[in-house]
Amino acid sequence: MSYTRNSADSYPRVATYVDKILKGAKPADLPVERPTKFEFVINLKTAKQIGLTIPQSVLYRADKVISETRAE
């Protein structure tokens, strides 16, 4: 399980930083921004490999569930 920043929310911010740098701003002078959106991700494949059972109530709360149905 992880609680991490939402990647899609970060992309526009990256573009803004690149734009400012290309226009001459010094990277050291740019403010550090914290993420504003987060997502809760559960990897069921890994949980199974280490012998964990994730309760259904926790799975319902997840923004993203990685399952083992992926063909390799």
- Separate helix tally: 3
Biggest sheet architecture: 3 strands, mixed
General shape: elongated
The tally of strands reads 3
Order of helices and strands: EHEHHE
Q: Could you give the order of strands across the largest sheet?
A: 1-2-3
Roughly what fraction of the amino acids lie in strands? 15-25%
Are there runs of 5+ residues with pLDDT below 50, and where?
A: none
Write a structural description.
The chain has a 3-stranded mixed sheet. The mean pLDDT is 88. 39% of the residues lie in helices and 18% in strands. The two termini are 22 Å apart. The protein is built from 3 helices and 3 strands.
Question: Would you spell out the secondary-structure blueprint of this structure?
Answer:
Layout: E1 2-5, H1 7-22, E2 38-43, H2 44-49, H3 56-61, E3 64-66
Parallel strand pairs: 2-3
Antiparallel strand pairs: 1-2
Give me some keywords for this one:
single chain; 72 residues; alpha+beta; 3-stranded mixed sheet; 3 strands; 18% strand
Q: What's this model, at a glance?
A:
The chain is built from 3 helices and 3 strands, in the order βαβααβ.
